[in-house]
Amino acid sequence: MKRTFSFVVMVLFLFASLVACSSSESGSSKGENGEDIVEINFFHRWPNEPRKSFYDQKIKEYMEANPNVKINVDAVLNDSYKEKIRVLVSSDNLPHVFSSWSNSFAENLVSSNRIMDLNSLLEEDKEWSGNIIESQFEGFTFDDVTYGVPFTIDGKVFFYNKEIFEKHNLQAPSSYDEFIKVLDSLQAAGYDTPLVEGLTNAWAISHYMGTIFQRVLDPGVTAVDYNAKTGEFTDPGYIKGLEIFEELTSYMGDISTAIDHETARNMFGNGEIPIVYMQFAEIKLVENIGGVDFGFFNFPAVAGGKGDPDALTGAPEGWMLSKDAPKEAVDFLKFLTSKETAYEFTKTDGQLNAIKGGVDEGNTSPASFEAYEIVLSASSPAPWFDNAVNINIADIFMRGGQSLATGQTTPQDIMKDVQERAARLKNE
Amino acid sequence: MSILFLLPSVVILATFVFIPLIQNFYYSLYDFSVFSQTKTWVGLDNFKVLLSDKVVQTALANNFKYAIISVFFQVAIALVLAYILEDKIFRRVAPFFRVVYFMPVMISISVIALLFGFIYNPQMGLLNSFLDLIGLGEYGKPWLGNSTSAIYAVIAMSQWQSIGFIMVIFIVAIQKIPKELYEAAEMDGAGKVRRFFSVTVPQVREAIFVNTLITITGSMLVFNEPYILTNGGPGFSSITMAVHMYQEGFVKDNMGYASTLAIVIFILTAILALIQIRLSGTGKDE
Q1: Do A7 and B4 touch (CB under 8 A)?
Q2: DSSP letter string over A99-111?
Q3: What are the backbone dihedrals phi and psi of residue B247, each rounded to the nearest 5 degrees, phi first?
Q4: B51–chain A Cβ distance below 8 A for any pair
Q5: Reduced to 3 states, what is the DSSP secondary structure of residue B140?
Q6: Is A258 close to B145, i.e. CB distance below 8 A?
Q7: Residue A50, preceding bond cis, omega within 30 degrees?
Q8: In Å, how far from its chain's centre is CA A122?
């Protein structure tokens, strides 16, 4: 009987351990002097420098100023972040404060019902919320409820090497046909790959596709197609857009499908490549490599294109709070998005921020400040494509883009797959 | 009373294997997202989608390529290596080579993937530089960026990492073979090659079976290598079933369909294991 009891106790203990293992509460603990310590789980997507160190420093500063708070930080890069945050949502293990893209990415997270509604928070503290550029909230607001605080702003343009352009008597192109002439001239001048992209990064392909489709297609068409409930993707403009992307990859050489975007950026920074499609967020990274005098030009207008030729691809990123986040997490978020933090952030990292007074000539390089003015004066913003459409559609385009670059598929085949998937999504 | 002794392992197995397995079958009949709280009943629709999924065909083909190449390298070549290292001539250097061959097994797959990323780098990779050095520069290519070569580049990395582990199992099996058998074969005039086929291979049959089973089921489940090196790309050219399942679930948010893919992987590995058990006749009294 005793033995039986022991075994039953052991089994129950085993179960208890398993249950404990799956517990997601971070809760609080006791400090050295017996005071309550509130633990905040903070998750962002920059394990790389300089941003990692910046956030580590900010965490340290916050914890020194608030000894009753302990911040547990975790960081993984871009695509891995997208996957991990999904896993955390599905296992009800969402961190208290975490970074998020805007538009469909944010909307997906919101649909989990695990994200904090920030309306009252923004209303209560106007001193803080009024300091954030209002237009940037759009990508985090769904059905009149705001779920995210925008922090960084960005734009995607072609960076070009001024020295190479001057040497070969070339101008920044204003139309797609001129752009092709520029690429041909550079090839004739000995640059086998005048344009390079790290096509192993699916998101980099999506940035191209999103911009090209925005230039080529009628905004009314994309508005319908980018909605999973109404999308059909039957407009011939998509084929034309994919043909444009295919043509551009023909200038990238066969290394592009084997390198990542960082490598492409470094090649540009080292003066090896004349043109790379990059985000303003990368200005400082290029400047840090040193030695390249660069300028920008927006993706040029496409002949017969029905979209705004001056639109700028780029959308803000920001912070979200989980529904169960303690008030200390809210306070930490306010600290992260304060004018002081934002100003220092741009000075350290180079990326532009969405906080009023957070960017001026004192904390940016001339190139960054020029970028800031371009972003604020853009005729219209175009969201990142992989956040604008359903991920199942984006994935076909992104992988299709890789296959186009390696000559394994055709624009028609890609669109056939997209149309099939879109039809299925409509019925789901 | 004695059934209680089995209880802890039954509980652990049920918690981590059987219940998730049953849950997975249940989930495959639904369409749901990690973000939503509701599941939509779709019955066998996910299985219908699977039958027309072109990516599944590519993934299965890649898994079978993995299995065939792995059986050759990790079973056949590893057995030959083990036999050579156990030969009297190599007795002195064998410990050194055993360590050298086993070393990759102990290194994290992420580190190895990073290392092979450098080896395969199209600009300054060791492989292309080596080909240049020996005058075969024209055969150099962006190994991971080419739809034809990507899967083979990934498979090659796996062979390099796993061959040592399989070899060690064979070494243990060879050491258990009675010396008299080799002596008798030698007296009958059998050379090293003949001894290998007539003594070693039949005597390590159990180990061959175990290693083949490990290798083939491992090939059907392979995830880390293609995921880290190529993420299944370019396009879907180096995708495997496990990567496809993961991406459907955690990238594209089709959890029901990902469960369906998991069932396919489970059925495949179970069938292969059963076939091998039947064919090898292991476990039966001689």
Answers
A1: yes
A2: EEESTHHHHHHHT
A3: -70, -40
A4: no
A5: coil
A6: yes
A7: yes
A8: 24
Query: What confidence tens digit (pLDDT) does each residue in A28-71 have?
Result: 666 666 678 999 999 999 999 889 999 999 999 999 999 999 99
Phi and psi angles of residue B122, each rounded to the nearest 5 degrees, phi first: -70, -25
Q: Where are the beta strands (DSSP E) in A59-147?
A: 69-75, 97-101, 141-142, 145-146
Q: Tell whether B123 lies on the interface with A, counting CB pairs under 8 A.
A: yes
Q: Who contacts B226 (Cβ-Cβ below 8 Å, separation ≥6)?
A: B62, B151, B154, B232, B238, B239, B240, B243
The dihedrals phi and psi of A174, each to the nearest 5 degrees, come to: -115, -5
Element (H, E) at A400: helix A391-405
Does B257 fall in a domain? yes
Check if A255 contacts B (Cβ < 8 Å).
yes
> Which residue from B120, B144, B252 is facing A391, i.e. has the nearest CB?
B252
DSSP state of B74: I
* CATH of residue B234: 1.10.3720.10
Region A69-88: mean pLDDT is: 90
**Does the distance separating the beta carbons of A111 and B233 come in below 8 Å?**
no
For residue A309, what are its two tokens?
């030729």
A209 vs A33, higher pLDDT: A209
- The alpha-carbon gap from B77 to the nearest alpha carbon of chain A, in Å, equals 30
Residue B234: cis peptide before it, omega within 30 degrees of 0? yes
Contacts of B35 in chain A (CB under 8 A): 86, 89-90, 108-109, 111-112
**Residue A305 contacts by C-beta under 8 Å, 6 or more apart in sequence?**
A215, A216, A217
Task: Report how far apart the first and last C-alpha atoms of chain A are (Å, whole number).
Answer: 56
Residues 54-73 of B with CB under 8 A from A: 54
Interface membership of B12 toward A (CB under 8 Å): yes
CA-wise closest residue to A140 among A180, A169, A106: A106
| Low-confidence residues of chain B: pLDDT under 70 | 37, 280-286
Look at residue B14 and tell me if it is in a domain.
no
Residue B122 inside a domain? The answer is yes
Which one-letter amino acid corresponds to residue A412? Q
- If pLDDT is split at 50, 70 and 90, which confidence band does A279 have? very high
Residue B143 Cα, gap to closest chain A Cα (Å): 7
Q: Measured between beta carbons, which residues in chain B are less than 8 angstroms from residue A142?
A: none
Map out the domains of chain A with their CATH numbers.
23-153+316-373 (3.40.190.10), 156-313+390-427 (3.40.190.10)
Which residue in the block uniquely carries the two structure tokens 């789901």?
Answer: A428
